[in-house]
Amino acid sequence: xxxxxxxxxxxxxxxxxxxxxxxxxxxxxxxxxxxxxxxxxxxxxxxxxxxxxxxxxxxxxxxxxxxxxxxxxxxxxxxxxxxxxxxxxxxxxxxxxxxxxxxxxxxxxxxxxxxxxxxxxxxxxxxxxxxxxxxxxxxxxxxxxxxxxxxxxxxxxxxxxxxxxxxxxxxxxxxxxxxxxxxxxxxxxxxxxxxxxxxxxxxxxxxxxxxxxxxxxxxxxxxxxxxxxxxxxxxxxxxxxxxxxxxxxxxxxxxxxxxxxxxxxxxxxxxxxxxxxxxxxxxxxxxxxxxxxxxxxxxxxxxxxxxxxxxxxxxxxxxxxxxxxxxxxxxxxxxxxxxxxxxxxxxxxxxxxxxxxxxxxxxxxxxxxxxxxxxxxxxxxxxxxxxxxxxxxxxxxxxxxxxxxxxxxxxxxxxxxxxxxxxxxxxxxxxxxxxxxxxxxxxxxxxxxxxxxxxxxxxxxxxxxxxxx
Length: 469
Fold this sequence. Notes:
six-stranded antiparallel β-sheet; single chain; four-stranded antiparallel β-sheet; Calcium-transporting ATPase, cytoplasmic transduction domain A; 15% strand; elongated; 469 residues; alpha+beta; translocase
C-alpha cells in the first residue's frame, strides 16, 4: 500500500471512530497461522486486541508485507489545515465567534431587496477583511507547525538495511514497524520499540522522559529476557523471532505482549522492555531495538489530542457581550417596527404616509412593520462595531512582534529569543491565577552549577562559572 493511501486510510478510520484495522484483519492468534500442517498452537492467545510485528529482513519478506507492512510509517503531521481544507475549516472555526455570525447574517439580510439598506458589496467588505486577516494569521501559525513537523520527520537515525546488510542513516519518516534501529547515547528515540540489546553489562538502558512527562530523572529499561545474556550485539539477520503485542493505545504505563522464537518458545514483554518515542538515551553507549509502533500510532502521538482553536478570556468575554448587544438591538428594532406599524395604521387613509407600490398595491401596516424590523437591524448594526475585532487582531500582531523582539528574553546558549506558539491567546499573559507544581522541576529548571570546592586544603575553582554567577 502506498504512503498516501496509508495516511488517508488511517485518518479516515480515526475520523469515523472505527476499530483499529488490526482487530478486523487479525482477530486470531498469528502463531496458529504459522503452525506447521495447519495445527493450532496450544499456548494461550494474547487477550484482547493485538498486532503482529515481523522483522523487516529478507527471510520474512512475505510475512512482513502481510503483517507489519500494512501499518503506518513514522511520518507525523500535527498541523491543523491542508491546502484543501484550509478555507472551509478556518471559516468554521472563525464563525465560533458570535460577532462573525452576526455580521454574516447582516450581509445575507442586505441581499434581500425588500429590506436592503446599503449597497451589497459595501456591507460584505468589513466581514471579508476581518476573516481574511484572521485566516492569514492562522495560516502562518499552522505553517510554522508544518516546518517543525518537516524538521522532525527529516531527523536521521541508524536503521538496518536488509539490502546493504548494515545500519544506514535514514530519516525518521521512513522508519516502519519491524525495522531494527540502533541508537547512541543522547539520541532521541524515533519510534516505540522493544529493547533487544544494550551495551550495559546488565542489559539495562537509561532513558530520560522529559519529552513526555517533564521528568528529568532517569528511568531504567530492561533488555528482553534471553537477549540480556548475549555478549555481542544482536544480529538482525539471525533474528528469527516475531512479536505479538496489544494494539496501539495511549497508556504510557502499560505494554503487554510476547516475543515468540522459531521453536515456539515465548518470552513475555512489559513496559520495562519498551522504549517510547520522544525519550532520550542517557548513560548508555548504544542500544538496538525493533519498532512495534510508528508515527501516529506511537503512545506519545496518541496522547496528543491534536491542534485545537484556543480562545482567550477576552474573546470569550467579547462573545458574551456581543450576545447582550444583539438582544438590545432586537429590542430596539422591535420597538421601532411596532411604532412604524402603529403609525401607518393610525394614518392609513393619508396618502402622504402611505405610498403605494409601483404596481398600485398598498402594503399593510403589519407587513410594513415586519419589513421595517429587518431594515432597522441593518441600519443599527453599528451597535456591534466590526472595527473592534480588526483592532484586536492588529494589536495581537503588534504584541507578538514586541514579545519576540524583546532582548531580555534572549537565550545565549540556544541563540534564540522567545517564540510565540499560539497567536490567539497572547492577551492572557500575566493573568495566571493558579500555579500547580509537583516539585520535580517540571515547571522550573532545577540547575546546579559548579563554582568551587576545596579538597585536602587545595582550592579548585571554576572562574567562568564564578563570573557568570
